[in-house]
Design goal:
Blueprint (H helix, E strand, L loop, with lengths): L4 E6 L13 H12 L6 E5 L2 E7 L3 E5 L8 H15 L5 E9 L7 E5 L8 H9 L10 E7 L8 H9 L4 H31 L1
Parallel strand pairs: 1-4, 1-5, 5-7
Antiparallel strand pairs: 2-3, 3-4, 6-7
Amino acid sequence: MFNPRFLVVSLGNPLPKYESLHSAGHFALNGLARVVGQPAFREVVLGRQACLTSRGPKYTLVQSPTLMNVSGPFVARAWQEMVKDSNSAASLSLVIVHDELERELGDVKLVSWDRSPRGHNGVKSVKKSLSQGRYPLSPFARIAVGIGRPEQRDAATVSRYVLDKISEEQRRVLEEVAPADVAERLVELEAEWRSEVQS
């Protein structure tokens, strides 16, 4: 019987020190645990590092504990540990949840793993550290959580926009509105995966 499980890792800078739009993935994951009826996050050791995790029968939700731009090695170790524990990668999927400047605040989209990172250093780091080619039976995917974009496109303005302290309203959207859409995208991914396994 096909029993799919998901390692869902949010990228961002560690909370609560860096409460910014760049950590939108972490905020969305906070809300996702409630939406899918899982326990609150607690600190455990995974991938040889202490990190906030919520484990359920289907989803293991993990907030990457590293700075955004060096997320890859941690994600790769956590994935390899999960594969080892499940004895097979065939029933395990990796999903990365990250912020997306090109989408409106709270707008959520399932993104193909091999789509360009579009300059997103956290996604680049993960893709550099972990090759899907080694796990051909495991779907790898990304879920992009929109954070909007400032009118000025220069690097300094964009950097300030993503790194400044998040507003209460922005946080509410990311933690209370976006998670239901993230859950829907996970259901979509599972449906695609099931149809591939059964065809």
